[in-house]
Specification:
Low-confidence stretches: 29-42, 48-53, 223-231, 388-406, 616-623
Mean pLDDT: 78
Distance between the termini: 74 Å
Radius of gyration: 35 Å
Helix content: under 10%
Strand content: 35-45%
Number of helices: 4
Number of strands: 40
Shape: elongated
Structural class: mainly beta
Length: 679
């Protein structure tokens, strides 16, 4: 049950504001009953019924349209559209200036998207008006709602207290920076269809003519074809107030978490965020944006033609910016699409619009969305001969073995490991994980502390204060990020992140002097980060804007994760990008006991070295090396010289009788499961 109250009386035509009420709803009818026995039951009907559930204790605001501060703005353009009619074109920037108080103007802008453009000027302006409202819900002291007619927007005071405010103003600037509504005369050269050299003006009978630079000759215009595509004055930015990370990928269905960069939330509390995201329709179709991060009000306008506008708001505010404010859902055009070149514009955070650094237009941010990931699985085994008593000293480990009680491969349960996927290609800078400083994660404690060495490639051996620069993008689950410079490195930048990026600038000087050994692959420093939720999970680190000695370079991406095998030794890694994979198991003395290596293993090695295969007994014919698995040969090569000889058996015997086995820990080797077979 919802109780509403208005001290000035609720009248037909009043505007209604409140959580769950679509923008632009008005009161259609009211009933002020007679108080009878203390029961008052007013009924309010909205012109547009809402399908959303109103929150408990919802407060609704009723604003009378006759309030002097309510302002209606009609959008219009004097410029020719793509079809030649008078209307907006994609790339036009609409700016509305309203006042926070009598002396403080506030300007909000919107760039017309291609999805706003339709077949008629009226329909186009109606779409533009709706998109403007979605992109700018508040300007100054006004809520922005859809106006009473198509192509209009309405400014309604956020406060019920009437105050004298200057009238709002609107400007339209096209993609070339021309204020269209101040142009008194223009010529529609887009309309060149046939050979002619004079063109009538749009607003008077004046004509324009074509001539060469000297003005002497009047050429004849040939039939021309103009592209309908538009360009923005904004320069594509690598970093901005929002960023996206792959959340899941199944077939052609991909979802991406949308984050607000902490550097754009100066107060530390996020209350509102908005953006328009565009993807190439040749790569993917936008399905939806799902709200997140405890937003109490969200609005989504999906054009269905490659762009979507999203508004998010929270009444109480959000301080944990590692949580996404939304999730972009795409339907990929093909499973072979490696990445989607998305862009974001009309971005606002806490009612602050982000502009291009050079032009007075909304910022345009690039966001490459990874759409090609992989998964893999394998087993951890320890390879030794567990024979004892009457059991033969070496058993056949292939399927259907007669020596099931004496298999040479024994699963390693709950084996902890880390893994990395390094990007392909030759790079000037790479990351190297300090595996010696890693500690396994657990389900109860999934937080990992990782140290990444930033290593130069092909660096000068005589470098003296050689400048370098790089921007490191850390994952959303990273915190306490810090960079410690290496030997010979002097930083001119900070050592901590600004939002989800860390920009490093400085110089490098190679080692020199007596006894010094310079390296072409020096460690420029160590990046330390705390990663949340790393148990059976991973995180992506990337680099951009790399410069070495003034020359633009590249930085290698690194996907890092940690996991644990199940009770059968099976491990599964999912959602990893393309690249070079390395799986690094942790030392596991509880499962891998050196005492399990016995004289039986030395005997088995001698048998393999002699080409006899499995030793005689238990019904198997001696001298069948085909009964030995490739992994048995690998395990028999104790000294790892690439061959199985008596020296390996001797090494095993020495290992068995050695007192200190600390420096003789068994190592891990990789072999594809499909190759480890007797067939």
């Amino acid at each position: 049950q919802l109780y509403v109250n208005s001290t000035s009386g609720i009248q037909a035509g009043d505007f209604v504001f409140g959580p769950g009420i679509p923008a632009g709803d008005t009161v259609a009818s009211t009933w002020t009953p007679t108080v009878n026995a203390g029961v008052v039951s007013p009924t309010v009907t909205l012109t547009n019924s809402t399908t959303l559930q109103l929150l408990a204790n919802t407060n609704l605001q009723f604003v009378h349209p006759k309030n002097a501060d309510v302002q209606i703005i009609t959008l219009s353009s004097t410029a020719p559209s793509t079809s030649g009619a008078i209307s907006y074109r994609a790339g036009d920037t609409i700016s509305v200036t309203a006042y926070l108080n009598a002396n403080t103007p506030v300007t909000k802008s919107y760039i017309v998207a291609s999805s706003d453009i339709t077949t008629t000027p009226a329909a186009t302006m109606a779409n533009v008006a709706k998109s403007f409202v979605l992109a700018n819900p508040v300007i100054g002291a006004f809520n922005v709602i859809n106006g009473p007619s198509n192509g209009t927007i309405e400014l309604v005071p956020t406060s019920g207290t009437q105050q004298v405010l200057p009238a709002a103003t609107i400007t339209d600037v096209n993609a070339f920076g021309v204020d269209e509504n101040t142009v008194s005369q223009y010529y529609n050269f887009y309309g060149i269809k046939t050979a002619q050299n004079t063109f009538a003006g749009a607003n008077s009978p004046l004509f324009a003519s074509l001539s060469d630079p000297t003005g002497a000759n009047t050429p004849t215009a040939l039939s021309s074809s103009y592209s309908a595509a538009s360009t923005s004055l904004a320069t594509l930015q690598t970093h901005g107030p929002v960023y996206m990370e792959l959340s899941s990928l199944s077939g052609t269905n991909a979802t991406y978490n949308i984050f607000v960069d902490p550097s754009s939330v100066t107060s530390g509390v996020l209350n509102t965020a908005g953006m328009t995201i565009t993807v190439p329709v040749s790569s993917a179709a936008i399905a939806n944006i799902l709200p997140g991060a405890n937003g109490t009000v969200t609005q989504v306008n999906n054009s269905g033609t490659g762009s979507i506008t999203y508004q998010w708001a929270s009444n109480i505010g959000v301080t944990d910016l590692s949580k996404p404010v939304g999730q972009l859902a795409l339907t990929l055009a093909s499973t072979s699409i490696n990445s989607v070149a998305a862009t974001a514009t009309n971005m606002s955070v806490n009612s602050t619009n982000f502009k291009d650094p050079l032009q007075n237009v909304p910022m345009l941010e690039a966001s490459t969305l990874n759409s090609q990931v992989y998964s893999l699985s394998g087993h951890f085994y320890q390879q030794y001969n567990p024979a004892s008593g009457t059991t033969m000293p070496f058993g056949n480990s292939s399927a259907g073995s007669l020596f099931a009680s004496s298999v040479t491969q024994t699963s390693i349960p709950t084996q902890d490991f880390s893994y990395t996927v390094q990007g392909y290609g030759s790079n000037n800078l790479i990351f190297v994980v300090e595996t010696a400083n890693l500690m396994p994660t657990t389900r109860a404690n999934p937080t990992a502390l990782v140290n990444l060495d930033l290593v130069g490639q092909g660096m000068s051996l005589t470098a003296a204060k050689m400048p370098f620069a790089v921007t490191i993008n850390v994952p959303s689950n990273a915190s306490a990020v810090n960079f410690t410079p290496g030997t010979g490195v002097t930083l001119t930048s900070g050592t901590t992140t600004n939002g989800h990026t860390l920009t490093l600038t400085g110089t490098y000087t190679a080692a020199s002097g007596k006894g010094a050994v310079a390296s072409s692959t020096p460690t420029l420093g160590v990046l330390q980060a705390t990663l949340a939720n790393e148990f059976n999970g991973g995180s992506q680190f990337t680099m951009d804007t790399v410069s070495i000695n003034g020359v633009t370079g590249t930085g290698q991406s690194l996907y890092f994760g940690m996991g644990q095998s199940d009770t059968t030794g099976l491990y599964t890694i999912g959602n990893i990008p393309a690249g070079s994979l390395a799986v690094v198991p942790f030392s596991n003395p509880m499962a891998i006991n050196p005492n399990k290596i016995t004289v039986n293993d030395a005997m088995a090695v001698l048998s393999i070295a002699a080409g006899k295969g499995i030793p005689p007994g238990q019904g198997l014919t001696p001298g069948l090396p085909g009964n030995i698995l490739p992994s048995d040969y690998m395990a028999s090569d104790f000294n790892q010289d690439g061959q199985v000889t008596a020296a390996d058996a001797l090494g095993i015997l020495n290992y068995i009788v050695s007192v200190n086995k600390a420096n003789l820990t068994p190592s891990y080797s990789y072999i594809p499961a499909s190759n480890d077979s007797t067939t």
